[in-house]
């Protein structure tokens, strides 16, 4: 745990950052489906 | 030819900066690897400063600007010239590939006509207006009218000499050159590939991508702020008065470009005073006043308020009144602050703005990316590990001033849009990267930091590609300027007709701010409460005679408005039409876009152009100002 905390932090923080773009990703998928 | 003019201006900036550095005798104190970055930072400010005085004197001919640029070149002729070195090895090639991709995407924007709303509304529109009228014209409009424009003055010379293509290329190039100080100054504490990583992170951050390629000032202000902070750190560590002068000039250029430069200047002067450096504080303040006060003095003389209209209760400007002051306070400032200006939110803001931002912060579209939260614990660990020596480090003062500016900005209750922090972002990236690098050096493990850089660049470059899609499309397919603007600028449809058919002595009242730059006819931007020259507040339209008097005083002959929605101008148009004061001229089909970046389609709108008949208005009532809700 002591050695892996940097990787846990990076993974959690990055996924938390990506979460806000869920609607954007959905709209891109919708657009691609329509195309 | 446009490319040559852009290079001419860039070299002139370097020359002006070199002349100044030599006159302050700082050349010996600066490292050879960073001296050209100092030249550019100072030279860009000097060019904006000189162009202001040229425009103020009514000397806006291409010959006058060419003379200023040529004089700058003289600075490059003197010897000895420091070597300009650049070499790549190892991991730098990978980073260079990232940076090259970002440059190519930015180039696609630089080759396209300007399409950003703020750029069209005033960054470029004011510059075009100065060249057309032959002089500086004060604009008594809050927020984006009576604002300092030092950076935009550097656009004057390039637009006069090379036209629009040269101007967009210059904004593209100056955005990238704005990162030169970050790379050069990072090299004091970081190896070259980590310095390049800092540049890549900042260059691809959404706020930078949004602002650097367009005419926005924030990215170019970073050219001044990081060297200013480094100079202030040297001044605070008593390394010579010349540092106070150079720091003062750079801070003055910041203040001459944006209101936020004023609190920044106050903080720097305050830091010198707190340490009892009276002489340094005097030198700093004098240099700041010389570099940045001209816009405030000019607005004071022309509009009666150096910060128009913020000092309204104390200074009575001719172009403002109590009702508009109250409306601006209640409608604008409340809409710009999504959360309360408390200490809790000052601490929480960076986290919330990164992970779950309020729409008013515009942090998803023009935010500062994930780098800050990803690197935070590593930077904190680095600071903690070396806490006993931290106050002696030059970046201690840089961090302290950056943090103090952030707190002042947030707690002052001004606009909370995150991109206002962009000028300080390179300083933040430098300080956190150096601290995290120290931590990783001590543990001999740089993989987490490398992963942070890779993840940040990956997601940010994907976002930049999406943002640049419209520009790439323009670059690779044959498309006229008009066709590009038609598909990217909201309600652009009336512009080609107006430019072709309307008489040159016509003046159009409109509230489509994105059309100001493309219009080749005189205009007046009729914002509901940013201006008080025409009362467009709800209810004011009933006093038709008063409104007609205001329109006549401003020589307005036509009104362009959205005809199928009730808005600020359609209310007035309805009343004028009821009194027989209008003649229809032309109807247009406009477009508003769901998302230009994603190409999610558009809604059609209806716009109408009408001519004002001033021989009417006998049935008008008296002006009624509505009671504003608390």
Structure write-up:
- The complex is a heterodimer of chains A (35) and B (630).
- Chain A has 35 residues and is mainly alpha-helical.
- In chain A, 80% of the residues lie in helices and 0% in strands.
- Chain A has two helices and no strands.
- Chain B has a five-stranded mixed beta sheet.
- Chain B has 630 residues and is mostly helical.
- Residues 619-630 of chain B have low confidence and may be disordered.
- Chain A binds chain B through residues 6-7, 9-10, 13-14, 16-21, 24, 27-28, 31, and chain B through 354-357, 364, 370, 373-374, 377-378, 448, 451-452, 455, 459, 595, 598-600.
**Average pLDDT for all residues of chain A:** 86
Helix content of chain B: 55-70%
Biggest beta-sheet profile of chain B: 5 strands, mixed
SSE class of chain B:
mainly alpha
Strand content of chain B: 5-15%
Compute the separation of the termini of chain A in Å: 47 Å
Number of helices of chain B: 26
Largest sheet properties of chain A = none
Q: What pattern of helices and strands is seen along the backbone of chain A? A: HH
DSSP strand tally of chain B: 5
Strand and helix map with partners:
The complex is a heterodimer of chains A (35) and B (630).
Chain A: H1 5-19, H2 22-34
Chain B: H1 2-23, H2 35-56, H3 62-77, H4 92-111, H5 117-123, H6 125-133, H7 150-177, H8 180-186, H9 192-204, H10 206-212, H11 218-236, H12 241-255, H13 261-274, H14 278-292, H15 294-303, H16 322-336, H17 343-355, H18 371-385, H19 394-411, H20 425-443, H21 447-467, H22 469-476, H23 481-488, H24 494-501, E1 508-510, E2 523-525, H25 544-553, E3 558-562, H26 568-578, E4 582-593, E5 602-612
Parallel strand pairs in B: 1-2, 1-3
Antiparallel strand pairs in B: 3-5, 4-5
Helix pairs in contact in B: 1-2, 1-3, 1-7, 2-3, 2-7, 2-8, 2-12, 3-7, 4-7, 4-9, 4-21, 4-22, 6-7, 7-11, 8-9, 8-11, 9-20, 9-21, 11-12, 11-19, 12-13, 12-14, 13-14, 13-19, 18-20, 18-21
């Amino acid at each position: 745990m002591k050695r892996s905390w940097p990787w846990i932090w990076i993974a959690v923080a990055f996924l938390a950052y990506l979460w806000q773009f869920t609607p954007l990703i959905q709209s891109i998928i919708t657009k691609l489906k329509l195309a | 030819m446009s490319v040559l003019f852009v290079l001419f201006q860039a070299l002139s900036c370097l020359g002006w900066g070199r002349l100044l550095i030599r006159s302050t005798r700082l050349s010996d104190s600066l490292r050879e690897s960073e001296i050209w970055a100092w030249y550019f930072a100072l030279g860009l400010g000097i060019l904006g400063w000189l162009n202001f005085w040229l425009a103020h004197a009514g000397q806006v001919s291409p010959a006058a600007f060419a003379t200023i640029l040529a004089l700058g070149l003289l600075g490059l002729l003197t010897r000895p010239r420091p070597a300009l070195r650049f070499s790549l090895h190892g991991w730098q090639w990978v980073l260079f590939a990232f940076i090259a991709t970002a440059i190519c995407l930015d180039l696609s924007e630089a080759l396209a006509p300007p399409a950003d709303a703020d750029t069209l509304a005033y960054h470029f529109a004011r510059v075009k207006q100065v060249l057309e009228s032959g002089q500086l014209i004060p604009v008594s409009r809050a927020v984006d009218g009576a604002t300092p424009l030092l950076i935009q003055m550097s656009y004057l010379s390039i637009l006069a000499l090379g036209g629009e293509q040269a101007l967009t290329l210059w904004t593209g190039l100056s955005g990238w050159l704005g990162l030169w100080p970050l790379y050069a100054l990072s090299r004091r504490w970081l190896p070259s590939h980590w310095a390049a990583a800092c540049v890549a992170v900042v260059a691809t951050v959404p706020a930078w991508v949004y602002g650097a390629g367009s005419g926005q000032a924030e990215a170019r202000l970073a050219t001044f702020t990081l060297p200013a902070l480094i100079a202030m750190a040297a001044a605070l560590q008593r390394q010579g008065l010349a540092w106070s002068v150079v720091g003062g000039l750079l801070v003055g250029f910041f203040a001459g470009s944006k209101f936020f430069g004023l609190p920044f200047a106050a903080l720097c002067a305050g830091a010198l005073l707190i340490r009892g450096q009276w002489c340094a504080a005097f030198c700093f303040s004098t240099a700041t006043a010389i570099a940045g006060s001209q816009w405030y003095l000019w607005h004071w003389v022309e509009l009666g308020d150096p910060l128009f209209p913020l000092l309204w209760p104390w200074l009575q400007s001719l172009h403002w009144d109590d009702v508009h002051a109250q409306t601006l306070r209640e409608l604008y400032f409340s809409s710009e602050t999504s959360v309360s200006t408390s200490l809790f939110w000052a601490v929480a803001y960076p986290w919330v703005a990164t992970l779950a931002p309020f729409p008013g912060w515009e942090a998803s579209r023009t935010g500062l990316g994930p780098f800050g939260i990803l690197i935070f614990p590593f930077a904190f660990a680095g600071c903690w590990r070396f806490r006993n020596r931290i106050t002696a480090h030059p970046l201690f003062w840089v961090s302290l001033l950056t943090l103090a500016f952030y707190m002042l900005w947030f707690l002052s209750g001004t606009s909370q849009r995150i991109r206002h922090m962009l000028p300080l972002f390179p300083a933040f990236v430098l300080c956190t990267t150096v601290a995290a690098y120290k931590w990783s050096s001590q543990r001999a493990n740089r993989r987490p930091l490398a992963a942070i850089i890779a993840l940040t660049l990956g997601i940010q470059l994907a976002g930049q590609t999406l943002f640049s899609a419209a520009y790439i499309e323009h670059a690779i397919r044959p498309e006229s300027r008009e066709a590009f603007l038609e598909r990217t600028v909201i309600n652009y449809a009336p512009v080609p007709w107006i430019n072709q058919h309307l008489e040159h002595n016509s003046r159009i009242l409109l509230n489509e701010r994105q059309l100001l730059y493309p219009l080749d006819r005189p205009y007046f931007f009729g914002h509901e409460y940013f201006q008080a020259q025409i009362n467009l507040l709800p209810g004011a339209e009933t006093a038709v005679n008063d409104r007609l008097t205001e329109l006549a005083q401003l020589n307005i002959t036509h009104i362009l408005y959205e005809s199928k929605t009730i808005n600020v101008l359609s209310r007035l148009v309805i009343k004028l039409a009821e009194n027989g004061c209008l003649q229809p001229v032309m109807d247009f089909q406009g477009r508003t876009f769901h998302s230009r970046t994603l190409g999610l389609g558009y809604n059609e709108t209806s716009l109408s152009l009408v001519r004002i008949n001033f021989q009417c208005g006998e049935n008008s009532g008296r002006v009624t100002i509505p009671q504003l809700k608390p």
